[in-house]
Amino acid sequence: MPELPEAETVARQLRTRLVGAVITDVRVGRDDIVREGLVVVPWYRGSRLVSVRRVGKTVVLGCEKGGETRHMLFELGMTGLLFFTLLHPSYQKHTHLTLSLSGPFPALHYWNPRRFGRVYCLDSEGLRAFVTRRFGCDPLDVTWEQFRDVIHRRRGRVKALLMHQPVIAGIGNIYANEILYRARLHPDRVASRLRVAAVAILYRVMREVLTEAIQAGGSSVRDFLAPDGTKGDYRKHHQVYNKSGVLCPSGCGKTIRRLKGERTSFICPSCQRT
Ligand SMILES: [Zn+2]
Questions:
Q1: pTM of the predicted model, to two decimals?
Q2: How many domains does the chain contain in total?
């Protein structure tokens, strides 16, 4: 399931290859995939793709036509991907939206077999309102002071907080596990009761883990592929995610344990205490 590093990998590939291209056609395979703006889909024909950015775990294309800018926000959901070419004929079935483009990359396909993701067509004001409503601070942009306040003002458990998109946008289960292990924090610790020193470590390792994962092109757990069809390498660097029974990499002598909960947690019982 794509999280921040995977969405960032997608956004970077699209930015370097597609900015400047003109959208010559938009084909929607399933109407219910497009939210808040199916009626404006025809507007995008003839517009120029001027920007690509990541917001949380989503990718936003900026399109310009006649002095007006509109946006197309792609939720990657559980299984959503964007491809330059369909890797296999069977992918056609779950391709819900295709942009035809001028330039060396003639298409962009939104493929999503499990349909947990949506596409939103929004004007600039609509995008601003959407982002404010749905997304909290970005883990890579948030300042230390903002982050400390976010953590200390919440009663919830630290792992749930890291994954709560309206508060901190972009982290899902894989990276929450990896970050908490590196910070030596148990996922059930209450956020507001963490000492400032522990929050400072959490802030530093959150950014380290996400930056390293972006450099590796994300984690290809399940089916993540970048738009050019390549896999992300960061899975090799996972310390705890899906590693139950494996010796803790810190050398403490314990093995990684899987905890049952709303979302599965993987911890070292010795290095991450409640
Ligand atoms: Zn350990």
A1: 0.93
A2: 2
